[in-house]
Amino acid sequence: MKNERPPKEADVLIVGSGPSGSVAAKMLTESGLSVVTLEQGTWFDPSDYPGDKKEFELAGGKKWNPAPNVRDNERDYPINTSDSDVEPYMQSAVGGSATIWAGHWVPFLPSDFKVKSLDGVAVDWPFDYYDLLPHLEAVEQLVSSSGTKGNPGYPPQAGYPTPQIPIGKTGMKLAEGMDKLGWHWWPGLNAMPSIPWQGQNPCARRGTCMFGCPEAAKWSPDLVLFKEAKKYGHRLISGARVREIIYDDAKGRVTGAIYIDQNGRERRQLAKTVIICANAIGTPRILLNSKSKTFPNGLANSSGLVGTNLMMHPFGLVMGHFEENIESSIGPSGQLINTLQFYETDEKRGFVRGAKWGGMSAGGPLSSKGYVGATVFKEGGKIEDSWGENWHKMIEDRFGKTALWAIVGEDLPEESNRVEIDSDLVDSDGIPAPKVIYKTSENSRRMLAFHAERAKESMEASGAKSTSVMPQMRESGWHLLGTARLGTDPKHSVLDEFGRTHDVPNLYVWDLSAFPTGAGANPTATLMAVAHRQATQFINTKRNVEAA
Amino acid sequence: MSVYNEEDRANFARLADYLIPAYNGKPSASSVGVHLEVLDEVFRIRPDLVEGFRRALDFCAGKNLSEGLNALAREDEAAFTALTTVATGGYMMTDEAREAVGYRGQEAVPYDVNEVEDYVTNGMLDRVIARGPIYRDTRHLK
Predict the structure, then answer these.
(1) Structurally, how many domains does chain A consist of?
(2) Which residues in chain A have Cβ-Cβ distances shorter than 8 Å to B80?
(3) ipTM surpassing 0.85, yes or no?
(4) At what angle do helices A19-30 and A524-540 cross, to 10 degrees?
């Protein structure tokens, strides 16, 4: 493949190179379309990740912190979170936030697509689990997943390309508690192979997934899909920060994007079709910044819903501290096991919907403190309670001896939780930055409190000598969803069921913004499956696609 | 060239040893050199801690260790967090401290992917399967 200039006008322009953008890029390029992807971030080299270096735990607090407001790299854009209960997480890189995701592969369940019909809340999706299943099975191959077939938490499905990664002593300890209680658990399904597979190395169980995988084992788009797409002529332009999508009022179509390159120069990439995959904060930011005569309040925003219904999964942690060494610094991290025991609605609990728990290891010695928060000085206390000899004792008690349940709950959509354009804040290229307004709901609070109590019971059944509970964490915005929802009614949704905007026939959104509800599970598996479905439909009907 | 002179380093060593003293076979912070080259290495990795760390040193200068650190934690939590992060982060990067707590870093751990796990042979997973499906089916909603 020669290093040719990108076409002046591509068939398809994709904005964002995360999981959904990469699925789109691979599939559309392989179908014969000319495809250009713009990514605001740059390439990471796995050897740069800190997981195999002495500074691992220290570096995680800044350069590799998942919060862009903390990281504050030149490629990050700032987010005003002064009115948000949760700090959003993301990464600016080729591969997007998947460069620092945990690799937890937790497909949504059938009920997640029918919450209105089943539980009378939010909205149903315009398609269901069974429509999506073939696409899910396809992307499970793409990500070189590893796991164990037959989980009774799900309807039967095809299985995974590589065998189960060991759950280790920590996973076994967690499973023993669930077994005693008669509760559901299953060995962890992860987007990382256990044997060399499709150019990915096997997981080394280093346990540093959320700070980048130095083994190049955990799946991320930069490792695999873009390399495959390049063989077919895909062009990826990194360091390209999109300022706006170009809309032609006369044609009623989008014609491309204006972006700022890494040298600060304004450039245009024209295209017949534009697909935005810039995450549930980045996508509405771009749409709201793209104003025209037809769309003075933001592109494709005749419904007024662009930016609204932001969901961020309520997230809590329950730790069990054990007498014996359970080797809890060993990964993957990654989920060792998980449970869907309390996933479905039981109205007796005082809330609707539920949560998935991921059983995880606890990391290095500094995480023994960090996982209970930075607060080591409580009101009325004194520092000697946590420092001096007590600091050593805390590490003796916890390091290597701590198992985690990470609780991911369903967040119901509310229009008041939203992304706007901040009136003052701009990024390093002067592009207006987003403001997030987000309040945790009473349903979420009750849900997390209930699940934390059950997780504590599970730890005690496992034999934990003590437990630590964080029922609600601000630093937890891993999953951003819902700000350009799909649906059938243009008054109540931004996109149709195939992710095409109701307002503009050649503009699509295929990232988590499109999700009308968020489920209580890590969303990447379903995100990629939905992108696979949308790309399949696009390819199958491309002769009829309306272009600029 | 480091911005920290010998007096700064000595002051930090005193504070760090109060936070991380020698205990039960574990070395104290200063005995592994958190106030020496390690300090410069910490700030190479975490330049964002410089400002808070400096405030912490200045705040505690000339004060009784316990009184100074307790007052710092109450009055300038960010500086206290910077100070403790520098102390613990530097400490755990040293070979001596790692050996004492039994931490060799986040190591790659070899495994045999064909080895049958205990939860398969002891019936634990079979019991999960025997309890049957727990998801709510939705095919009737088509």
Answers:
(1) 1
(2) 377, 383
(3) yes
(4) 30
